[in-house]
Amino acid sequence: MSQSRVRHSDIEVGKALPWDVYDEKGTLLLRKGYLINNEGQVDRLVAVGVFADSNALRQSRIAQVEAEDSEPEASPAQEWLDLRKKMELLYENVELTIQSGQFISRITEIARCVDNLCGAKPELAQAIISLRQDGRYSSRHLLDSATIARLAARDLKLTPAREFGLICAALTMNLGTTCFQDEIKAQSTPLTDEQKERLHKHPEEATTRLKSMGVNDPIWLRAVLEHHEHFDGTGYPNGTAGHELSPEGQILRLADIYCARITFREYRSAVPLTVALRGILLERGKTVDQTLAAQFIRAVGIFPPGLQLRLANGEKGVVVRPGSSPNHPLVVSLIGNDGLPLSPPLQRDTQNPLYGVGETIDPATFNAYVDIDSIWG
Ligand SMILES: [Fe+2]
């Protein structure tokens, strides 16, 4: 009997195990039907390293991916979290899904959901990226980048077909290297020469794999190939420069770097959204096209929804949406100037000098729970 290692996502808390579980020497540890009661049990099993029959495991993974399609109606924030889970499952089983010929149809289905959710509640789509940073980084990052790229593309008035190609490109830009992306995301030391070489080849690797699965949309393929190219020609893999680059490839690059910077990493905090935008501003005319960078920043907003900040009166809150002018967002205050939670939270118009925008807050030190559905749902 061939056995494969059990992953965290294979075990569902509160459900009976669908297969027997063994240790690495083949000793039976838990029988099929055993009920796992909490996340801690799952963590311990996965940390020790447990195994199950490969065929049984494969069947339960396929069933898990298919079951995602028949979930009951969820809140808007939950819809995003479900989509994240769907991406995570897809990428955890990426080779299996490619072999079964379903990878591209799964990606286009997720791309349609991204398009619909961004269209329905664009501010919620933006806010959830910075306010809920859980789950596996590599697949979440692809979904976050697709979201930001879609919002920027709409602002830049790309045609629906170009927009859709761009979303699909964001969801597949690191195909073949997602595990590697997780590995280097957790690494605090500089990349080795071998890692650099692998990184430099990944846009071509992803493009080749997409073509082999029948993708022939030039927007999609070009954006994946060019998502690490720089306007001044210092990028990779081909060093393509200036207006030889497609706008979709450059939008994807901006979405990719913006989302990477606002994400918490093992060795550093996430930077506030405004700091990430300032970083892009500094790159204007160098690694990114001046006009496109300015348009991207306008689309994301100088004060993006979800940004955590302090107001002039000492309250702490999050940006809900743009206000009467780009410099005066609408904010919901969650913590009073006495440091205690405000119940209920209070809407503040930063146009009023009393509630004027103060400094942005390091996301790691913002210790209030933000109920996304009640603010943006
Ligand atoms: Fe990449």
TrEMBL record:
Species per Swiss-Prot/TrEMBL record: Chitinimonas prasina
Lineage: Bacteria, Pseudomonadati, Pseudomonadota, Betaproteobacteria, Neisseriales
InterPro entries xref list: HD/PDEase_dom, HD_GYP_dom
Superkingdom to which the source organism belongs: Bacteria
Domain HD-GYP positions: 117-312
CDD domains assigned to the protein according to its UniProt record, in alphabetical order: HDc (cd00077)
Full protein name: HD-GYP domain-containing protein
Segments forming a coiled coil: none
